[in-house]
Amino acid sequence: MKPELVVLDMAGTTAADDGLVEQSFITAITTVGVPSERHPEMLRYVRETMGQSKITVFRALLGEESSARRADDEFRRVYEGLVHSGRCVPLPGAEDTVRRLRADGIKVAFTTGFAAGTQHAILDALGWQDLADLALAPGPGVRGRPYPDLVLTAALRLGVTDVRAIAVAGDTPSDVLAAARAGASVAAGVLTGAGTVDDLRAAGATHVLGSVAELPAAVQG
């Protein structure tokens, strides 16, 4: 079945941010008073949950809602500043992949674990505001990965006729799980970000690709 929709993760899949998540995270938890001796254990959790909604990660680590929101606000401020300074760049072949898919009549949606404002900061920095058909982030009524909401919301908004006609690509196990839970026939893991071959296979990846540039051939045959 030729896909009607391809859902692409951003950081680690289509864009490289060179460790900015961890850098911004350390600043955020320091701001809310987390002592430095707790930073390594928290960073391990951040790495394990890459791809998931950042506010959800802060809630799990900090417990108190006010602290989680303060940390999330600080994370966004720092990360978006680094993005605007030129620290986020397209991964090789990513833009060509999106253009190739759309030229073949396949709709493309960008999804992320970042807040909508951070996602738009990345799109602005890369000049990708109009590259895809849709950009989605977690928010009210749309849970982040590994829930299927982002994939299914993209399918509804873009008029997909069958969830089996969806392909998803991302660099984390959370991306793969979200794809499987949404019923996508392709749940591709890419090796340009946080996930390893073993991580992605264990999450149920249908394909493990060296980069997103390999995706058109994988989904179109």
From TrEMBL:
Short name of one Pfam family: Hydrolase
BP GO terms, sorted: DNA repair
InterPro entries: HAD-like_hydrolase_sf, HAD-like_sf, HAD_sf, PGP-like_dom2, PhnX-like
Official protein name in the record: Phosphonatase-like hydrolase
Key words, A-Z: Hydrolase
Gene3D superfamilies (alphabetical): HAD superfamily/HAD-like, Putative phosphatase, domain 2
GO MF entries: phosphoglycolate phosphatase activity
Top-rank taxon: Bacteria
PANTHER family xrefs: PHOSPHOGLYCOLATE PHOSPHATASE, PHOSPHONOACETALDEHYDE HYDROLASE
Classification of source organism: Bacteria, Bacillati, Actinomycetota, Actinomycetes, Pseudonocardiales
